[in-house]
């Protein structure tokens, strides 16, 4: 994967970290590097208490990432 530089921008915010990681996997398999940032406050027993997970991409990849997500959502809707 080619290393990219530049500004990271938020593609989306997910309450559920698992969902954020699934989207990250989809985008990375399409060649778009992503980073997730947790805003969760962890309780003493490891449960997610507050916040969310932000999925970040390089600004130059934002439009392509949105297109991939829109296509994936459309395919999912057609399967139902």
Written description of the protein model:
This protein is of the alpha+beta class and 80 residues long. It has a single domain, classed as 2-Layer Sandwich (Alpha-Beta Plaits), CATH 3.30.70. Helix content is 39%, strand content 29%. It contains two helices and five strands; from the N terminus they run βαββββα. It has helices at residues 17-29, 62-79, and strands spanning 8-14, 34-38, 41-42, 48-50, 53-58. The strands form two sheets. The chain has a three-stranded antiparallel β-sheet with strand order 1-5-2, covered by helices on one side. A hairpin with a 5-residue loop joins strand 3 and strand 4. The longest helix has 18 residues, at 62-79.
> Largest sheet, described in full?
3 strands, antiparallel
**What structural class do the secondary elements suggest?**
alpha+beta
> Over the alpha carbons, how many angstroms does the gyration radius reach?
14 Å
CATH class: Alpha Beta
Number of strands: 5
CATH T-level topology? Alpha-Beta Plaits
State which percent range the strand residues make up.
Answer: 25-35%
Q: What would CATH call the architecture?
A: 2-Layer Sandwich
Placed side by side, the strands forming the largest sheet appear as 1-5-2
Rough outline: globular
N-C termini distance: 34 Å
Rounded mean pLDDT is 83
What descriptive keywords fit this protein?
single chain; 80 residues; alpha+beta; Alpha-Beta Plaits; 3-stranded antiparallel β-sheet; two-stranded antiparallel sheet; 2 helices; globular
